[in-house]
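*** Fold description ***
***
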Amino acid sequence: MNKTILYVALGVFLLGGSFAQAQETESVSGSAASEALSEEEMARKVQLAEKMHEINPVQEQVDSAVNSVASRLPEIERQTFLNAIYSTMNYKAIERISVDAMVEVYSVAELEAMVEYYSKPEAKSAGDKIPQWAGKVQPEIMRMIDKAMIKARTGQ
């Protein structure tokens, strides 16, 4: 596995969070969508999920993750990587998938709490600082991954 693939995988992980954990949690606790919801409750969930996407737009999240991954690539590979990613990106489709997933996964109460929290200036400020935090943590993670790759290649 080359380093570029690892960076992309890391970027996808950072973008998507722990997808496997989310699936595992859902299979244990059951999906909110499996509960019988009135049309009014379903409409409220859609409204709240869309509000979350106004607060934290998908395009900004995707671009941040992509740029984070790209910044760690050798300069000679960076533009090719960005061109490939952005030429295939469909933000509207990603947003629709994300809204639908939020409606399926979260309850009305959870969505209301998320909208309330993420609407606060402090939450916005904290979210804006994630790249700074990641910039301090990710290099160490990459060093560890590099060490693991060397061990794997040398059989140590």
